[in-house]
Amino acid sequence: MKFAAIADWAEQKQFKIEFMCEQLGVSTSGYYAWRGRGESDRDRADRRLTRLITGLYEGLRGNPGVRRIHAELVAVGHRISRKRVWRLMRAAGLQGRHPKPWKRTTVPGEQPVPAPDLIGRDFSATGPDRKWCGDISYVKTWDGWAYLATVIDLYSRRVVGWAVADHMRTELVTDALTMALTHRRPTGGVIFHSDRGSQGEFNRWTQHHRV
């Protein structure tokens, strides 16, 4: 496969053969011997797949990795192992992006205000719609991060409101809270407990609120 790659680049006159052999850890004599005997069926197949993989890689967003390229190949009818895709991508210098699996969701406000803890660290409730708890989570998608805000009733542990967006601005939380209020229509005072991030503080409110 290294010899096939060298032959490709040599035809395009990108690098000198001696330089490519040295960088790929093969001998120049070995390359010329390989050229003399011609390519095997496997080598030709690898070359065709490498061109296809390169085209897919350049056409897809987000620097796709082995799993996504493999899925695309299978979708167009190529029965090929992930290990072979990995080998061909590595030989072609194609590397997928590996985003950090962790995202910071609690962002302090510019002027944080001390907030009283109205629930006293007691995450239980004696009845529905008396204590709600809000939080933000995130999911990595092919198009970027998707952020999910939820409102949970601490009595039933059910999600009573939620919102999804591509940002973590305050309206992400207020949209989830609005959904909870619209669907539940609580008759008494509800304590909404959130973290102390700028989103949950609603820019000027305290950490916990009666709604």
From TrEMBL:
Protein purpose: Involved in the transposition of the insertion sequence.
Q: What is the lineage of its organism?
A: Bacteria, Bacillati, Actinomycetota, Actinomycetes, Micrococcales
Tell me the protein's name.
Transposase InsO family protein
Per the UniProt entry, what species is this protein from, by scientific name? Brachybacterium sacelli
Q: Which Pfam families match?
A: HTH_21, rve
Q: Where is this region: Disordered?
A: 97-117
Ranges for domain Integrase catalytic come to 124-211
Query: What InterPro entries does the record tag this protein with?
Result: HTH-like_dom (IPR025948), Integrase_cat-core (IPR001584), RNaseH-like_sf (IPR012337), RNaseH_sf (IPR036397), Transpos_IS3 (IPR048020), Transposase_IS3/IS150/IS904 (IPR050900)
